[in-house]
Amino acid sequence: MSDRVYMEKYELANKWLCLQIKESSLFRSLKRKGVKKIITYGASDFALRLMEQCKCEGDMELIAISDKAIISSGQKYKGIPLIPVSDIRPLQSADTCIVITTVGYQEEIEDDFKRRGIEDYILLRDLIYDAFCEEK
What we know:
- This protein is α/β, with parallel strands linked by helices and 136 residues long.
- The chain contains 5 helices and 6 strands; from the N terminus they run H-H-E-H-E-E-E-E-H-E-H.
- Strand 5 (96-100), helix 4 (106-116) and strand 6 (121-123) form a beta-alpha-beta unit.
- The protein is globular.
């Protein structure tokens, strides 16, 4: 992993921690758009933190976790379904957004999503920055 990716992860974690200390909603911008459910893409530490954030805030439901390493449906993590990328599109609706929690491979993932017709996604980085900037 490059120094740039480590630095980006550090900056994201730091901004997210600042938001939590201020008890600010990470999901404010999504809620304004009518989003009530999210799917995380990227089975990472950030995905686990996002799952905890959903529980803490209570009004955003994590309905699935997806990752390119997940090749079939049927398994769960703490009650949340683990789904392959191919199962994301059928779950999309007006009140659902995919949050890409992976850092360092965003362009590759966005290209893959476009090829698959997956829309309504946001990078975790953008979600954190949006919430952080609203606090200033």
